[in-house]
Amino acid sequence: MTLPLSHPALSATDPELAALVGAEEQLQADTLRLIPSENYVSQAVLEASGTVLQNKYSEGYAGRRYYEGQQNIDQVERLATDRAKALFGVDHANVQPYSGSPANLAVYLAFAEPGDTVMGMALPMGGHLTHGWGVSATGKWFRGVQYGVRHDTGLIDFDEVRDLALKERPKLIFCGGTALPRTIDFAAFAEIARESGAVLVADVAHIAGLIAGGAHPSPVPHADVVSTTTHKTLRGPRGAMLMSREEHAKAIDKAVFPGLQGGPHNQTTAAIAVALHEAAQPSFRDYAHAVVDNAKALAEALLARGFDLVSGGTDNHLILMDLTPKDVPGKVAAKALDRAGIVVNYNTVPYDPRKPFDPSGVRIGTPSLTSRGLATEHMPAVAGWIDRGVTAARTGDEDELAAIRAEVADLMAAFPAPGLPTD
């Protein structure tokens, strides 16, 4: 399938860049995208991202700007914040953070001082860089202590988390991460935060869409602050939000602006508003549950083919595979699958003996393929392609990878992606 020419103004002004955009559109159309943090946004979100709102500077908040001419911008931002509050049932929402990492940095600025102890899941166990990991600014400016998962189950040991929190008395406790295939017990984390006197921050960047669609429990009744990106399962633009109880609203807003950043990206705020509107529709609930159904079906099909899945499966959109039993390093497998038209990312697994840039695992997820309309009946075929691709990675069979790529492209042609040009 060859996509039609798009972006005529860009093509006329900068054909080199336009060609790269077109090549990416073609790649996204032809390949099976299994990276769990990626998705397809709607045409409406794409259009909102490219409006004349790009032309405005709007330091401050709605009704309290440092620039004039904000009559429309204020309404756009209020629309986004009101929709966030309604969708997630929160007292307060800030839609200005540029991305997930700056949003988390704002939480530190609001509640901690440099050198304070903070607690989060260790990065190799599935946590995020900004949860106090050493190579991040959050680990350099704050004293990070980390919890992990059990060797035998791959699940969080809450007795260990409680003992660590009571011993270290962190100012902040982060729950959530980037490679957690199981339901997060927000209530258990909240109890530990209360006992230790910490502020609980639920980082739901990966699962925000599942929460909005009722396919994962919400942290809102339990967490002091909820941090999230607006893409991934929420199917919005590359942005972020911070949501909180009313008592923390002023601290959060002050930390975002003027604490960390100047004017918000108004075109992104508009696209966030569109995505939140879409996520409030009944069809989005169907989508969120279909993401989980597909992930569970894919996990079952992979287990049937002898794959080792961390924690034995999944409760959400994400599957973490340890390829050690397949005798293929994660990086080798990921690059081979990419040549086969199956886009994944290599990833550490808990207690991984290999280095982070050459780990044992591969991380996959079902948000993108679900956005294209693939369902549980397609997951055995997906698992079969992955199995064949991993085997070809081990044996160096490039012909097999090429054959898989052709089969993948045939199926993708039958399921056009949202937001991409069509014939």
Automatic annotation (TrEMBL):
GO terms for biological process: glycine biosynthetic process from serine; methylation; tetrahydrofolate interconversion. Pathway: Amino-acid biosynthesis; glycine biosynthesis; glycine from L-serine: step 1/1; One-carbon metabolism; tetrahydrofolate interconversion. It catalyses: (6R)-5,10-methylene-5,6,7,8-tetrahydrofolate + glycine + H2O = (6S)-5,6,7,8-tetrahydrofolate + L-serine. Gene3D superfamilies: Aspartate Aminotransferase, domain 1, Type I PLP-dependent aspartate aminotransferase-like (Major domain). Residues 10-386 form the Serine hydroxymethyltransferase-like domain. (6S)-5,6,7,8-tetrahydrofolate binds at residues 123, 127-129, 246. Keywords: Amino-acid biosynthesis, Cytoplasm, Methyltransferase, One-carbon metabolism, Pyridoxal phosphate, Transferase. It is an enzyme of class 2 (transferase). It is found in: Cytoplasm. One of its GO terms (cellular component) is cytosol. GO terms for molecular function: glycine hydroxymethyltransferase activity; methyltransferase activity; protein homodimerization activity; pyridoxal phosphate binding. Its EC number is 2.1.2.1. Belongs to the SHMT family. The modification N6-(pyridoxal phosphate)lysine is found at residue 232. Catalyzes the reversible interconversion of serine and glycine with tetrahydrofolate (THF) serving as the one-carbon carrier. This reaction serves as the major source of one-carbon groups required for the biosynthesis of purines, thymidylate, methionine, and other important biomolecules. Also exhibits THF-independent aldolase activity toward beta-hydroxyamino acids, producing glycine and aldehydes, via a retro-aldol mechanism. Thus, is able to catalyze the cleavage of L-allo-threonine. This is Serine hydroxymethyltransferase. It comes from the Bacteria. The record marks 231 as: Plays an important role in substrate specificity. Homodimer. Its cofactor is pyridoxal 5'-phosphate. Coiled coil: none annotated. InterPro entries: PyrdxlP-dep_Trfase (IPR015424), PyrdxlP-dep_Trfase_major (IPR015421), PyrdxlP-dep_Trfase_small (IPR015422), Ser_HO-MeTrfase (IPR001085), Ser_HO-MeTrfase-like (IPR049943), Ser_HO-MeTrfase_PLP_BS (IPR019798), SHMT-like_dom (IPR039429). It comes from Streptomyces agglomeratus.
